[in-house]
Specification:
The complex is a heterotrimer of chains A (about 55), B (about 100) and C (about 100). Chain A has about 55 residues and is α/β, with parallel strands linked by helices. Chain A contains 2 helices and 3 strands. In chain A, strands 2-1-3 form a 3-stranded parallel β-sheet, sandwiched between helices. The longest helix of chain A has 11 residues. By secondary structure, chain B is of the alpha/beta class. In chain B, strands 3-2-1-4 form a 4-stranded parallel β-sheet. With about 100 residues, chain C is α/β, with parallel strands linked by helices. Chain C has 4 helices and 5 strands. In chain C, strands 4-3-2-1-5 form a 5-stranded parallel β-sheet, sandwiched between helices. In chain C, strand 1, helix 1 and strand 2 form a beta-alpha-beta unit. Chain C starts with a strand and ends with a strand. The relative contact order of chain C is 0.27. Chains A and B meet through helix 1 and strand 3 of A and helix 4 and strand 4 of B.
């Protein structure tokens, strides 16, 4: 399963823990939206390639 | 096959509406689960209590990490680790709204 | 053919991301649906909301949330029609009918 973790803000301890458990043993990668100029083109490619995307707070 | 959806509700300003949204999917024949993280619900109206009951009636559940919600609203207690394990089995995971501003 | 994309908006903070992602997805030939609920409906008052409506294939909002946030349901945001003042069923439609899903 290909999983994409997207972070809308700096993850707190709970978010980190949940993302870690959900991602364990899976083909997981992350994308940080909490930057000045996110590369939306790359993000959309990653979303299309993933089986599941989670947009954490 | 019915989809399984989990709402993560980490901000009191969003939690009750999140349960309404979860019910909205339950009535669309999905399995809807909600997880109330680190926020104690006060002044819960009968309308929202009924929403929570309806989610349960439709084979969903509203869990919480907060003891007061267990005592006052009958929500089953759950830990962050247990939530993480449940989320692995869900088709859609929805961190609802915004994270509360203080550290939780 | 590009996958279709549904965006469920529950936060009032992410208009730039909604615009950026919708533009990028449309440039790839994707069909895009956006549904706004709870405090997300405040984004209907952003200057670029109408542009989003022109860009995306389908935009709708939760009229119940719009009302609870203090707006008059008769005051339909520019870019929307009366049929787009909708219910949580639109969220269900995203999950059932679209290939990919984002919460913003």
């Amino acid at each position: 399963m290909k999983l994409l973790n997207v972070y809308r803000s700096e993850p707190n301890d709970d978010t980190k823990k949940l993302a870690e458990i959900v991602s364990e043993g899976r083909d997981a990668e992350s994308f940080d939206l909490n930057v000045e100029s996110p590369d939306y083109d790359t993000l959309v490619d990653k979303v299309f390639a993933a089986d599941q995307t989670i947009c954490w707070w | 096959m019915s989809k399984k959806v989990g709402f993560l509700l980490a901000n009191k300003e969003y939690t009750l509406d999140g349960t309404r949204s979860a019910l909205g999917l339950a009535v669309e024949n999905m399995y809807a689960y909600a997880y109330v993280l680190n926020n104690e619900l006060t002044d819960v109206s009968d309308y929202h209590k009924e929403n929570i009951e309806w989610i349960r009636d439709m084979e969903g559940e509203v869990y919480t990490t907060v003891d007061a919600n267990v005592e006052n609203l009958g929500m089953p207690k759950i830990t962050i680790e247990e939530i993480g394990k449940q989320l692995r089995d869900l088709d859609y995971i929805i961190p609802y709204g915004i994270m509360r501003s203080d550290k939780s | 053919m590009a996958k279709s994309l549904g965006i469920f908006v529950t936060s009032p903070q992410n208009m730039r991301h909604i615009m950026g992602i919708t533009r990028a997805a449309k440039a790839k030939g994707s069909k895009v649906k956006v549904f706004f609920t709870w405090y997300g409906v405040h984004l209907t008052k952003c200057a670029n909301f109408q542009t989003l409506c022109e860009l995306a294939d389908d935009v709708s909002i939760c009229v119940d949330s719009y009302k609870k946030c203090g707006y008059d349901p008769a005051d339909i945001p520019k870019g929307l029609e009366a049929k787009d003042m909708a219910t949580q069923g639109q969220h269900g439609a995203i999950i059932e009918d679209y290939d990919c899903y984002l919460t913003l």
